[in-house]
Design a protein that fits this description.
The protein has 321 residues and is an alpha+beta fold. Helix content is 58%, strand content 12%. The protein is built from eleven helices and eight strands. It has helices at 8-14, 21-35, 37-57, 76-92, 105-113, 116-126, 129-133, 173-183, 204-243, 247-268, 292-320, and strands spanning 62-70, 135-139, 144-147, 152-153, 158-159, 184-188, 195-201, 275-279. The strands form three sheets. Strands 6-7-1-8 form a four-stranded antiparallel β-sheet. Helix 6 (116-126) crosses helix 8 and helix 9 packs antiparallel against helix 10. It is elongated, with a radius of gyration of 34 Å.
């Protein structure tokens, strides 16, 4: 079809002509921004100064971490050999023979560390509630912690914070658990199985000490659990031996008791029961946060964008009016 035969109004509809409106709008936009440059500079400067003050007011937080490897279970060989033959009988006694089911011991230990019960016991056993809930500043010179006087009176060892019921001046374990969960981190690498435990605190020495205590306590807790379970299983098996006269069954029960004895012996002679320390926690020399330069840059950028928006909105409001 010849374009010459197409009416002019159809040409305009199919191929709209470009105008200089977009260009004029863009020029107007830059003109408005330029006219409001002093307001933009002022607002941006206020945000920049504010971000600097905020960044400098934030205390340094130090991070200490340790790299752990799951401890190999030397006693698992004998248990695995018995799993296929006596799994049913063992389950009656509450014995896990490692038949492939159940939760991995390493993963269980990680979840135990994240539990409220473990955190509460850890806080109470090591008396770290003031360091967790009331620490305000770390004094590098004498390696001491200054506490918030509105929360905790260190000289009288007394909690003085003002709270509404049902809360009390002394923080509850539920409150402490929330702060504790923010301070610690436990991660397991899927490819290597290595476990990293880290703690963040105002004091680098406190952070390092907590990591060491966490490793020590989780090994102790998991050891005590396995020993208690093995003792209960042995008691059950001894009762079953007394109730039967069948030689083959008695032989099986004696083998199961032997494996429980090995479990107890293995636990008693080994301090690093669940986790072996590959890279122990050190007292960090450099802070982990805050990132003061990043806070300054983001604060300044936010101020600049907000200032431009204010200038444009003010212009268009006046224009519409």
């Amino acid at each position: 079809m010849n374009n010459q035969n197409i009416p002019q109004e159809f040409k305009d509809a199919r191929f709209p002509q470009t105008t200089s409106e977009d260009e004029i709008d863009l020029r107007e936009l830059f003109k408005v921004i330029w006219q409001g440059k002093w307001l933009i500079i002022a607002i941006t400067a206020v945000f920049a100064i504010g971000s600097v003050i905020f960044a400098l007011s934030q205390p340094n937080v130090y991070k200490s971490e340790a790299l752990l490897a799951p401890a190999s279970e030397e006693q698992s060989g004998g248990l695995s050999a018995l799993a296929g033959q006596f799994g049913g009988l063992a389950s009656m006694a509450g014995i896990n023979l490692g038949g492939g089911g159940g939760v991995d011991k390493t993963q269980m230990a990680i979840e135990v560390m994240k539990s409220r019960q473990f955190a509460s016991q850890f806080i109470q056993n090591h008396n770290i509630l003031p360091d967790l809930m009331a620490a305000e500043k770390w004094n590098m010179g004498d390696n001491t912690i200054t506490y918030d006087s509105e929360i905790y009176d260190a000289s009288a060892n007394k909690w003085v914070r003002e709270v509404k019921a049902p809360f009390k001046p002394k923080p509850s374990m539920q409150e402490a658990y929330k702060e504790f969960s923010k301070a610690i981190s436990v991660n397991s690498a899927k490819d290597t199985g290595m476990v990293t435990i880290s703690v963040e605190h105002l004091s680098p020495s406190v952070a390092q000490q907590w990591v060491a205590w966490l490793i020590q306590d989780i090994n102790k807790v998991m050891k005590e659990r396995d020993v208690a379970e093995a003792n209960r299983s042995s008691e059950f098996l001894n009762k079953q031996i007394a109730l039967t006269n069948v030689a083959d069954i008695r032989s099986i029960l004696y083998k199961l008791i032997e494996e429980q004895a090995k479990t107890i012996m293995f636990a008693e002679v080994r301090d690093e029961y669940v986790f072996k320390t590959i890279d122990p926690a050190l007292v960090p020399e450099e802070k982990a946060k805050p990132k003061r330069a990043l806070i300054f840059v983001l604060g300044t950028m936010l101020g600049g964008m907000l200032a431009v928006m204010i200038v444009l909105i003010r212009h268009f409001v006046r224009k519409e009016g």
